[in-house]
Amino acid sequence: MSLKMLGFDYGASNGRAVLGEFDGKRLSLSEIHRFDNDPVRIGGHMRWDFPRLFHELVTGLRRAAQAGHRDVGSIGVNTWGVDFGLIDEYGELMYNPIHYRDELTDSAMEGVRALVPDEELYSRTGIQFMKFNTVYQLYALSRLYPSVYERAAKLLFLPDLFGYCLTGNMTAEYSIASTTAMLAVTRRNWDIELLGKVGINADMLPAVTMPGAPLGALLPHIAEEAGIGGAARVISVCGHDTAGAVLAAPLHKDKPGAYLSCGTWSLLGVELSEPLTNEKAYAAQYTNEGGYGGTIRFLKNIMGQWMANEIKREYERDHGPISYREMDALELEAPRFASFVDVDAPEFAQPGRMAEKIYAFCDRTGQKRPDSLGSLMRCINESIALSYRANIDALEGILGYALPELRVVGGAIKNKSLMSMAAGALGRPVYAGPGEASAAGNILAQLLALGEIKDRWEARAIVEKSFEGQAYEPIAAEAAAWSEAAARYESTVKGK
To answer: Which of 246, 206, 227 is nearest to 442 (CA)?
Structure first.
């Protein structure tokens, strides 16, 4: 008889309720419910529509029950990092959480830097400087809306906010807390001294708990509304979706290799037992985020499919629907290595006018503009692949050893063109799969918490047995072309 678990996997554009079934050897996943995650602009800010997202969670519970899965034993929720909800003294959510792409933090990095120098912030937290990190969000909120900030009794990161709404219990799960630039990276707990320097009230932060900790039973009214039964327990899984994806990445204990969790963002890195915050890590801006078992996800945040998604949205606005398969076909027809962009340039992180931004970048760097939808897509994907190359070279330099293979997980493995480009750019094998890595990691964390599997290495062995992957090998005849493209990328795009 299979053990049943429900994982709720929230991404920046959609979310899913996934049923996991484990027979003792293999794990299977089936989608119960899927829904869009559309931000809303209210009160001058881009926000997450949390009440609707929670409604979709309850709908997922209900659909699981209707499909005959009232015997689900446990439930876990994962989301993206850094964002949070504020809870007032009555236990109520004060407002819809602000979206990490909002303009709230546009000048916050400079304000925090005046209080805590960058070198000190990195040595304390080990976190890459990105303007949407929670420390910058809270700094901006406390300065721009002090009355709102002062009313807040508790702060809950998004997976913990879902958990609170399900159980009434508050926690700060380690992997999600580690994305904030407020956690002491070596102690894996809140850096109270740092918070004091920035002016953040440490009392609003719940206690940090490790992935796999039990959160509690479903509140009676939730269980009744969903019809799921009162036996299901909510578990604090790896709340950060990338931490779940890395748990499900089929890495090998005795063979060094890098992972790439690739979706809206690309997260390229390795798993370490202890943080790494030396001068090389600081200079390359590698981040130390938390993983299952207190591990460190030593990684770099790189652009993923965000730019391509924006190009698709803009094209459909003007010309009507087009599928990714059609876009891939157009990309194959476009000339190779015609132009590149710095995918991590600040302008590309903001929504809107993506094609115009690419044209402007090419004009500014003396390159030919992409002149078709296919050439735009090729420009984006080749630039991402070359960014992977530059970052894995930097990673090997920091670590002092080679990384002979790359394990890619996440939804972008469906982009076979990008996977082939990654293998070519890196000059090493790329193994892609599973695509549903964050959902799989959610379920695996539940299995670990329930004692059904013993450790993360057994979890990864189960992944390899349960899900098919695909290997992409670099083509020797194309190595010189990729090397020339990489040199032009570094000189033209990065100015090196």
So the answer is: 246
CB of 441 within 8 A of CB of 247?
Answer: yes
Residue 38 near residue 49 (C-beta atoms within 8 A): yes
- Alpha carbon 336 to its chain centroid, in Å, reads 29
- DSSP 3-state assignment of 27? strand
CA–CA gap between residue 71 and residue 58 (Å, rounded): 16
Low-confidence ranges of the chain (pLDDT < 50): none
d(CA 323, CA 311): 12
241 among known catalytic residues: yes
Buried b (16+ CB within 10 A) or exposed e, 313-329: ebbeeeeeeeeeeebbe
**Alpha carbon distance 171, 319 (integer Å):** 47
3 state DSSP class of 33: strand
Cβ neighbourhood burial of 380 (10 Å; 0-12, 13-18, 19+): buried
pLDDT at 1: 66
Please, how many CA atoms are within 13 Å of residue 181, restricted to the half-sphere of its CB?
A: 28
pLDDT tens-digit map of 2-27:
899 999 999 988 999 999 999 999 99
Strand partners, 258: 406
Q: List Cβ<8 Å contacts ≥24 apart for 486-493.
A: 486/386, 486/389, 486/390, 486/425, 488/337, 488/340, 489/340, 489/383, 489/386, 489/390, 490/390, 492/340, 492/365, 492/366, 492/367, 493/340, 493/341, 493/342, 493/365, 493/383
**How far from chain centre, in Å, is Cα 59?**
24
Cα separation, 270 vs 244, in Å, equals 14
Q: Which of 49, 241, 342, 344 is catalytic?
A: 241
> In angstroms, rounded to a whole number, what is the distance separating the alpha carbons of residues 95 and 324?
36
Query: How is residue 401 annotated by DSSP?
Result: S
Q: What is the pLDDT of residue 20?
A: 98
The values of phi and psi at residue 236, to 5°, are -75, 95
The reported pLDDT for the residue numbered 272 is 97
Rounded Cα–Cα distance for residues 296 and 80 (Å) = 17
Helical pair 324-333 and 306-319, crossing angle rounded to 10 deg: 100
Token pair 């819809």 in the structure block, residue: 96
pTM over 0.90, yes/no: yes
